[in-house]
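Posted in: Structural Biology > Protein-Ligand Complexes

Title: Requesting predicted complex, NAP in pocket

I'd be grateful if someone could produce the 3D structure tokens for the following input. Sequence and ligand are given below.
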Amino acid sequence: MAIPNIKLSSGHDMPQVGFGLWKVDKAVAADVVYNAIKAGYRLFDGACDYGNEVECGQGVARAIKEGRVKREELFIVSKLWNTFHDGERVEPIVKKQLADWGLEYFDLYLIHFPVALEYVDPSVRYPPGWHYDGNSEIRPSKASIQETWTAMEGLVNAGLSKSIGVSNFQAQLIYDLLRYAKIPPATLQIEHHPYLVQQELLNLCKKEGIAVTAYSSFGPASFLEFNMDHAVKLTPLMEHDTVKAVADKYDKAPSQVLLRWATQRGLAVIPKSSRQETMVSNLHCTDFDLSEEDIKTITSLNQGIRFNQPSNYFPTEMLWIFG
Ligand SMILES: NC(=O)c1ccc[n+]([C@@H]2O[C@H](COP(=O)([O-])OP(=O)(O)OC[C@H]3O[C@@H](n4cnc5c(N)ncnc54)[C@H](OP(=O)(O)O)[C@@H]3O)[C@@H](O)[C@H]2O)c1
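-- Reply #1 --
Done. Output follows.
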């Protein structure tokens, strides 16, 4: 089946449905990626922080070697971790990440979070995570987003990434970035689901020509394993009466309705699933259309509830990045 593309401001096409690699266990990541390519996925959303780039690259290499896909048909995304924001750290870590994947370039490389932390050498710990000592200490770095973005622009000029973008940024910082960017961010990746619809941020991106990718499209589902209070207490979106009623109407799975709601709002989606049948049904989420009224009904479930923020994972007084 043909997956629609989104035209990025960089001139490149990005598939509107891709595959998320967060929490894909190293032990199975190569097979998961290989099977996802077999199922028809072409975009893979990785990151240094996911700790599985070597294995994901092995899955890609196997698919290419068997002639199932060519490199240029894939769209590989990776992200700059917080400890590599200092300008001189950006290119070396991207080269390491490319070597881990076994690739010569990324299609898209994102600043993972607008948070600069002190450098941790990969020989000390990789991926470094949030804490300087690997345990509890948060050590900021002085790198500004301008310094980091200038180094990100260098990646495009050096042919290491075709497009560059940001993740977990909000409006104020995007306005600022646009003032000095020589290459504007092609995409913004954000948490987006019916409990967190972020309409104003989407309006800004539309106006500025920044494509938006939704992560955690199933809302609480991805955060249950962390025992986050509000994730556990909320009605799971796939079991929500409103979502189920819409799904019944179109004879689709609630998961497909959640993905279609996002893609009809203009976003790209990158659902993660380790199960083959689920992976396939998630990919097949653009071959039907919800009515405007059904889209509005789902949008009205908004509660402004965010799951993916540092303070939900560990106690900290230093990382109120969505405040
Ligand atoms: N930029 C960022 O800061 C950031 C943050 C979070 C995520 N992301 C990216 O976005 C991707 C997607 O987000 P996510 O992994 O948080 O969550 P997600 O895709 O919304 O949800 C994944 C969870 O839903 C389950 N699931 C998937 N499809 C399903 C279906 N059709 N029916 C029932 N259950 C289903 C999966 O279980 P099974 O695996 O068992 O199927 C998994 O527990 C990530 O993998 C990552 O690439 C980026």
